[in-house]
Amino acid sequence: MCVAHRPPVMQMLLVLSLLTPGRGLTNNSSTTGNACGNMTVHVCVNTTGNVCGNTTVNVCSNITVKVYNLIHNPNVKQEYARALVAGFNASVNSTMTAERLPGGVKLEVVYVSPGSKGTMTPYVVLGELKKEKEKIHNYSTLPVMLGPVGDVTAEHFLPVLRRTNIVAFAPFTGSSKIRVWNKNLYFITASPTAELLALLRYAVTQLRLERLGFMYLQGVSFGDEEYRLTANALSNIGRELCGLFTVKSSLTARADKGEFEAAWKKFAETRPQGVIVFGSPLHDTKEFLKRMQTEEGMKKVHLLLPSVLQLITEDTYKETVGVTTRRGKSPIYVSGTNPLAKDTNYKAIKRFREDMQDYLKKEPAGKHHSIQQHHYDHNDIDGEFMVYGWLAGEVLKEALGNPVWLKDRKTFMDSLYKQRRYMIDDLVIGDFGGECEGMAREHGAACECNQGGTVVYMNRIEDGHRLFPLKDGSLMLASSRCYRDMPQLYAPLSGVYVSLENNAIATRATAAFTDGASALTGRGQLGHGDRFFLHRLTSPTGGAVRALEKEMSERAVTAVFGVVNDAMLSMSNVVFIDPVTLSPRPKVARRNVFYLSPTLEQQLFVIAKNAATQGSDAVSALIRSKDAAGIQEMVRKVAKVFNMPLDTTVTLRDSDRVSGRLPPDGDVLLIGLAASDIEPLASHLDKHPGVRVFVPFFDFALLYDNITSAFKGRPGAERLLFATNLPHWAEGNAMSETVRGFHRAVPDKSKWTPLALLGFATGRAIQSLLSRMGEVTSETLVNSIFTQSVITADDMQYGPFSEKCDTWDAASYLNMEDCIVNYGAVRIALWSVARVFDPSLPCVAEAATPSIIYEKRGFLGLTDGQLIGVLNGALFILVLAIAGSALMLSKIFQDARDNRRAPKEPTDPVTLIFTDIESSTALWAAHPTLMPDAVEAHHQLIRSLIVRYGCYEVKTVGDSFMIACRSPLAAVQLAGDLQRCFLHHDWGTTALDDSYHEFELQKAEAGGYVPPTAHLDPCVYRELWNGLRVRIGIHTGLCDIRLDEVTKGYDYYGCTSNIAARTEHVANGGQVLLTRAAYYSLST
């Protein structure tokens, strides 16, 4: 405890320096002083360096924290400095300050005037400390600075900070150069690198710019590293900058006029749609911004700026306002490191506003500042600086929360890095951490991290100083990354949905679909979950195609989702993912259209099968569609498959009513349901219990509210039927993983509709697809769907999709469209509307995947089967005449694909083998004449071993094989023999080995890779490698086994196939990788 007499007191100094420009600063004022100056903290200790001789809070009663305000920079407007200091003072003077500081600890602010040249230097601070009779090299003091302002100023302060063990608290800098691990710098905002990533992400994912430029200045240590990072990030997603503006500049002089003009002319010729401006806030950057906003041809170019350039945007706007009002102006977006003062969605901002109002009431504009009440509501940039200052004060109070930390400056500095996280209401700053030992980093510790900001905000600037938050632009980084490499930006899928504004049904349907799909769009957390984006395009129904074409000419559009009309679906230059058609129509058999929901044809097969099973004598059809003739023919063909006679088929006009056209009993197909049909239909079903009516799924989903309102509590709900592959969207405690995820993402039960779940399931399918994609364009999306073939997301499955035609199949020759399988709905069940109201009711027909097979007449009146027999016979004779060897290969292929060898029992585990040739793309590019023979030999070797071990060739995709085996031992033996056969095969050339050798060396030169064999002696190398290198992955488990109606072979779906494929993907050439399940299955 403290002794009775007062010991000599030494002051421990805490110098805090904020980034604030200002002039006319006064010294030694109280916390109500003006908004410019310097901050220094003095903490009282006794001569022994112990806090009152004890380490408990109650012992110390006289700790004074003097904050020296070092906020000044001649290149920064005084108004911003005053705003920042006012925010800090509002925090310090808050009524909560005394509650949050330990007893006996108080804050006192001292303002420091800049030096004779108007700059804040270390010598100015040293001189101020001498006024307090402090010895700066006396290590019983604790100086810490809040600031300083600017990268160059911070660099000037660093030697003194290191020598004296001082911490610069919340320095304000603009580039990445100064953002490195240094215990003397304590940043509370996100880094410039994070701001750059937020700007780049916004340009690519929200603005969807195809041509993006970059601007920075050379020679000022600002922007060089950011330019390199931008180029690398774009390269990773298959993009590049369209242009670069850069000139040599300096802090004291402008760039050479001729050099500036030449650089500008060259840059303007690249015609950028947007520019990331990462120049230092100097005259040359200001001149660039002025030209971007005034020169013809640039006025619509999007400008993306880091927060530090807010220092010059208002002046730039004022200088160009006359020109921009005549010619228009460039949209300007700016990143931010804290929320705006008007963004009351945050609890912290609400408290800031209360503290700010109280402070300005107590200290009105006058001697110490010129800020009026509610000024932060009228000038958003000033308000943003106020919030920054307020947050600095809040963090400082938390940092001083324990007097034990104030014992001496080393103790205080160390305390700042003891895994510190500051929670300012709902804003989080941190984690801060020092040097780590052992596995601490791997176990989640923040190591060597002196920056705490993990969120970047995005705002739109208007009138130079008005900021408007852009929620879709926010970026959230994991605090554990800190100074690791710049987080990877993955290529986004830029989806578009069209809101047909003059169609009420379409508008409601679009809103419901996006309720589910938008829950999965990117939220700024990076990774594969931040790759799917949906953007709204509004158009009248008749102008949808023109609107889409205009959008595609100006922005990136990967695919169209949601509601479409017939005119849109006729477009062949855009990809459609599961189009929701406003009226029934047959599927579009083109490679740019993909169906995840059951096609009308699939639904008819499910319905007709049920009608036949129930012993229906005949089916009537009422059809309302622009393609009524095509649908009628489809109905006739499906009915014939199931020997189901058609009673009557009636084509309805849009104005026709169903009243009087429905039979008194039997099954009815009502294709093209209208809202006006629903009440008469409900009444008819109530009156005639022998009638069942089938409607297409989209007819039901588009009129969901009308149908549920009309049929609730009525007996006819049991006999209004539709087919779907969706689980129940509104089932509580659902077993479906998709539904559980949907309910978590969309907690509002009023939005639990079939179209909302469809949107969510579509989004999950896209996320699953993207996880295995690199570059994303419309073409790569199409290719990826066909290559992956089967898409699995949670408990939903789609596929197989296929566009490969068998050239030996006569039917393929006659109708190439039949070779494109662009529909993937499986497990389609038949529901009644009664089940919509009560999920516990069983389906009318359990889920099944229909086989779409017709018997149709073709050329010369022959059925396809007869025609195929004739042509195949002729082709068979031709093949015999060409070569006997071809028969041998064909025999091997048929044996490998012999369905008798296929595992078929769904309750028995299947062992799946996936193979792939390593670097096959590069090999094809290097040896286009050698690879066909090499791949042919590769296929022969694999197929011969498949036959030998009694396994089954499921399919090939390019040069990859998927093989199914009943026996895991046979699978492993097959894989081992494959590698040995490849090693000992006579490939007839060493060119393949030479190329693999070169690939290894090239990868090593790129950095971060040690070639495992390329540096070996050539003799040893030849013993290890020979010819094609194949990687193999094996996994054992249960599969969803189905007979594919296209290939007439068996296929295997589910987690087992996915894991086997991923196992192969992580293997190297020449390796066989087994999963744990496959390994343990060898002992059973």
UniProtKB/TrEMBL annotation:
- One Pfam family name is Guanylate_cyc
Cofactor(s) required for function per UniProt:
Mg(2+)
Lineage, top-rank taxon, reads: Eukaryota
Q: What class of enzyme is it?
A: lyase
Where does it live in the cell? Membrane
User: Record's SUPFAM superfamilies?
Assistant: Nucleotide cyclase (SSF55073), Periplasmic binding protein-like I (SSF53822)
Question: Which function does this protein serve?
Answer: Could act as a receptor for an unknown ligand.
**Family stated for the protein in its record:** Belongs to the adenylyl cyclase class-3 family.
- The protein, known as: adenylate cyclase
Q: Which species is this record about?
A: Trypanosoma congolense (strain IL3000)
